[in-house]
Amino acid sequence: MYKILRWLLFLLPAERAHYFTMKMLKLSLYLPGVSNNFQFDNHRKNVDGMHLKNGVGLAAGFDKDGKFLYALNALNFGFIEVGTVTPRPQGGNPKPRLFRLRHDHALINRMGFNNEGVKALKGRLESFRRENKACDMLIGVNIGKNKLTPNDEAQLDYHYCYTELYDLADFFVVNVSSPNTPNLRELQHINSLKAILEPLIEYRNSQKISKPLYLKIAPDMSFEQLDDIIALQAQLNFEGIVATNTSVDRTLLKFSSARTINSIGDGGLSGAPVLAVSNSFVKHIRSKSEMTIIGVGGIETAEDGQTKIEAGADLIEIYTGFIYSGPSLIKKLARLF
Fold this sequence. Notes:
Blueprint: H1 2-9, H2 14-28, E1 45-47, E2 50-52, E3 56-58, H3 69-74, E4 79-85, E5 98-101, E6 106-109, H4 118-131, E7 138-143, H5 154-165, E8 171-175, H6 190-205, E9 213-217, H7 223-236, E10 240-243, H8 258-264, E11 268-271, H9 275-288, E12 292-296, H10 302-311, E13 315-318, H11 320-325, H12 328-334
Parallel strand pairs: 3-4, 3-13, 4-7, 7-8, 8-9, 9-10, 10-12, 12-13
Antiparallel strand pairs: 1-2, 5-6, 6-11
């Protein structure tokens, strides 16, 4: 059934299809019995003090502004990341900025942190928390900086997002690894990371409740750079790493034509082609550390999810594989834990 629906959706431009699908799902929940179709026996996980109904999450970027929390909760995700959110609203990069590579079961995006800003997200999270006190889907917030904020002031943007949303999130993810904001990945250098993370941890230490904090990394860095981040995690004691974000490496594509790839241009590659490289990062981190690893990248089947777990991931997230495989993927992956 989903293959037919996907064929119809793929007739629309990718970004339009995304919002159309989520709006339709949102509306369908008003029909009797629809939400029951997505329920299944959960395999609970306890990670960093968080009690998750299952180990399957939705990666950041799918619901940037917290507009689809009710629908995503109905799909029975164990957790989701909303965002990436920035302090001030921004429109992101010019359209078109989301592209399908069907032969590779992949996407390329250069969205550019398009979002409505902290205040809009805060309002939606407050409403959702107030109306869904029994919700057992954990909500993490993925935080970033505004495009016009210079890198030497980036820590102020991250701190603002973090403190404004601290009471409303179950956990946080610091995003310094998107390829679609100019020079953002320079913030993966150790001194920049310390400048961002230390104030967040200091603020957390002043609060009554400690919220887990993770760092999302790019799959295009060297293992030497990754080792520096692993050492920093041990030093600062943030909970772990989300591995990995999208890739700029077009050599990962095997079936798309050079003409198609060149016509799309810049952007981050996600989906099946990044599975192996993402797994290699998870495996490398696990070989050096016992920190929590949230594995994301290329998961389209239960077998893909199993490789991520075997590489060392404690939890897994989906995005592009969710688009290609549909909601049934959540249940298949939840059985792995």
